[in-house]
Every structure is written in structure tokens, then in C-alpha cells.
Amino acid sequence: MRKLISTIVMLLFALIMIYPFLWMISTSFKQPFEVFQSPFQWISDQPTLKYHEKVWTGAASFVGYYWNSLKISIISTIGAVFFAAVAAYGFSRIEFKGRDTLFLIYLVAMMIPNQIIFIPKFIMFNSLGLYNTHWALILPGLFTVLGVFMLRQFFIAVPKDISESAMLDGAGHFSIFLRIMLPMAKPSLATLAIIDFSWHWNDFENALIFLLDKNLYTVSLGLQSFVLENSVDYNGMMAAATAGMVPMIIVFLIGQKFIVEGLASSAVKG
């Protein structure tokens, strides 16, 4: 009985979570006068693809925005996963003085709100000539405290006998990292890649602050083009938002089998 109740409760929460997405998709195929029509209709009496076509062929085409978002997200994700794996291996497998203290100090960065460092980042990027370039979003995105923490927990869980046996056979840390630890960490690496990609793909705040040129806009910033002076093009905005979900769905479908296994293997050990 308890299991049945839990299932029903989780189903209700799932429906609550998915409702906005269904409304978004439904609205993207409607006529303007049907958006806030009462009573609400999920399926339009006059469905149209006009707004989906407008997203790709209109004056504010999303082709450039898509390319910018993909470039930033892919480069940032690859870099973040690589550097997080290297740092996590160092914090978990290489003994050096003050290692644990340094790691705790590193974790403090997780507690600093992103908004606090906007001004220092602006000054730094402006002085380096990186303001209003994609590098202002890519460079900070190459490093992730959460990723280091997550992968470190996985590496700690791997028995030391494995790496010690490899060292007895003459392997160094570099070989152990590439040939043993990384293949074993595929689930955690895939999970981190999905989480990090979704973060960069949906990042609005950093793009809003560090990008001025419309040619550099990402998908999240491009949605502003549907906010007109005296009105909002809800149909166009929902069509663009629906198109913006596609890369996330593809990434999730490719890596979904690793998510549960990756999160479980990187859980904190007592």
C-alpha cells in the first residue's frame, strides 16, 4: 500500500513538472488568439507551423544562436570534464602535503554565489580584451567545482590495489589515469558531461552580462527577440523554446543509461 501511495505521489509531481513543457509545445502550434483562450485547449482548432518556420527563417533566425550555444556548450563541457577528471585524480590518488586542506578550500568555491564574482570577472575580461566574446563564457566554464567533487568521490571508491598493481608493473600516474581510471569512470564522466552541457546550454545570466553583439547571442538570449515593444510574441517564443529543447533531449537520450549508475558510483562514502 505504501509503495502504491508513493508511486501516485511521484506521478502527481511528474505531471506538475511536465505541464509547463506540454503547454509550451501546445502554444507553439496555436494561433495568437488561442494562447490565453478560456477554456484552455491542448490541441488548436487551427494548428499552424508558421511560428516554427519563423524561428529558422525569420528576421531573427535562430541558426546563428544555435551555433553559438553549441560552440560554447560543447567546448566548455569537454574542457570541464577533462580538467575535472585530472584534478579529481590528483586529489584522490596523489599524496602531497596539504592535499585535503587544499581540497576543502577548493570546495568553498561552491558556496560563493555566482553573482558576487560578476564584477571581478567583468574587470578581468575587459582588461584582457575578452569582454563581448564567447571566451568570456567558455573560459570560466572549463572549470567546475562540482565536477571535481563528483569525480573525486568515484576515484576514491576505486580500490587502491588496482593502481598499486599498475605501479608495480612500471606504470606512472599518467598511464594509470588514462588507461585505468578514465575507462572505469565512464558513467561518472557521462553524467558530468550531461549536467555540465545542460548548464551551459541554458545559461542566461552570464550571456546577458558578457555578450553585447547580437551575432554572439546564444539561444537563451535570442528568446528576447520575441519580446516586442508593446507586446510579446508568445507563439514564436514557445516555438523557439521548443526548438531549444532538442539538443538537451538528444544529449539526455544518448547518455541516460549512465546517469543513475554515475550518480550512484560518485555518492559520498562514509
From TrEMBL:
**Record key words, sorted:** Cell membrane, Membrane, Transmembrane, Transmembrane helix, Transport
Main location group: membrane
One Pfam family named in its UniProt record: BPD_transp_1
Q: Where in the cell is it found?
A: Cell membrane
In terms of CDD domains, this protein maps to: TM_PBP2 (cd06261)
Q: What is this protein called?
A: Carbohydrate ABC transporter permease
Which species does the entry assign this protein to? Paenibacillus oenotherae
Q: PANTHER family from the xrefs?
A: ABC TRANSPORTER PERMEASE PROTEIN MG189-RELATED (PTHR43744:SF12), ABC TRANSPORTER PERMEASE PROTEIN MG189-RELATED-RELATED (PTHR43744)
Query: In this protein, which residues make up the domain named ABC transmembrane type-1?
Result: 66-255
InterPro entries named among the record's database cross-references: MetI-like (IPR000515), MetI-like_sf (IPR035906)
The way it spans or sits in the membrane comes to: Multi-pass membrane protein
Transmembrane annotation, as ranges: 7-25, 72-91, 103-123, 135-155, 176-195, 236-255
Family designation: Belongs to the binding-protein-dependent transport system permease family.
